[in-house]
Amino acid sequence: MKNFKFCLEKTTKWGRLGWLETPHGRVKTPVFMPVGTHGAVKALSPKDLEWLGAEMVLSNVYHLYLRPGIDLIVHLGGIHRFMGWNKPILTDSGGYQIFSLSKFVRIKEDGVEFRSYIDGSLHFLTPEDVISMQKAIGVDIAMSLDYCVPYPSDKETVEKAVSVTLNWAKRGKTVWDKEGGLFGIVQGGVFLDLRRRCAEELLEMEFDGYAIGGLSVGEEKEQTWEVVEFTCQLLPEDKPRYLMGMGTPQDIIEGVKRGVDIFDCVLPTRFARTGYLFTRWGKMAIKHAKYARDPNPIDPTCECYTCRNFSRAYLRHLFLSRELLAYYLNTIHNLYFYFTLIRKIRQALEMEDMKELESYFINMDEEENFEDLVGD
What we know:
- The chain is of the alpha/beta class.
- The protein folds into 2 domains: 28-265, Queuine tRNA-ribosyltransferase-like (TIM Barrel, Alpha-Beta Barrel), CATH 3.20.20; 272-362, no CATH class.
- The chain has helices at residues 46-52, 61-66, 70-75, 79-83, 95-101, 127-137, 155-173, 192-205, 221-234, 249-257, 267-273, 305-309, 312-320, 324-351, 355-360, 368-371; strands at residues 5-12, 15-22, 25-29, 31-34, 57-60, 89-92, 105-108, 111-115, 122-125, 141-143, 181-186, 209-212, 241-243, 262-265, 276-279, 282-285.
- A hairpin with a 2-residue loop joins strand 15 and strand 16.
- Helix 6 crosses helix 7, helix 8 runs parallel beside helix 9 and helix 13 (312-320) packs across helix 14.
- It starts with a strand and ends in a 5-residue tail after the last helix.
- The relative contact order is 0.13.
């Protein structure tokens, strides 16, 4: 019997509470996964992540395949031993990265041919290969290979991508026979009829969970949430729902309200490395001259290691000096902020009262505070 289970404990008008049982432990939902694309969450150790409260991390099998190679990870005992992380790991299949990073891509009948963004070498992967690699390194949740097209794309292009995604999902599922969960990915762009088709055909394949992919790639925010809400209504209550790659604080709150259980995003770690810190009133650009002599912590109410020990002036000095400690301390704070957000969301769902949560995060409705820097 598979050592993977999703239990939905409570459903409210504000969202869902539950937990995932995986081969490497239980994960409470809603959950936020820090991104460790290459097998590490940048600037932090697994010990730091555990102290901060991370329950599951995300890595990417496309990047791991290109470097250091799947064979090496298997030789060294699998992804958990390789990373030194004994809690659950979800791996993205790399569909988005293949089409966004590769120097050349060609869809063939049995898979995808592409050139490495690292050295230009030619590669060919089938959907079976992608699942087999995730199985070989021992992940807790694997993702099907999907075809993610850019926005805007015409309906004919998106429809072709949906057909390819469904074909790849069906083929990849045939080789998944290990403990852990395998998720299908719902594509379809902003076309609701294509989202419906993709979701309904994936449901017939009976995956362990379902992801919503291909969003926050340029469409209007109103379209994003329309698609998320529509798709969640199509998905079964007793399976986990994962909104891929969307993770401003407001995204998480809005996603939970629409029935999403799992989130990931590079923002907290990427922003930390570019000098932007999350606070209850928006983002703080720590390099700003007004912090040059500021003795206060980032947020006086924050209990993270950074806020309890260091001033804004010192953090500004570290960042402008390009000291490595700046990236560490900034990342500690940003991820602590995210995990605090998740804890407060869970508490609000348990009490069935979002008022305290909304009053705590004073200015989280200002999307421009975060999304203007995603590409940094």
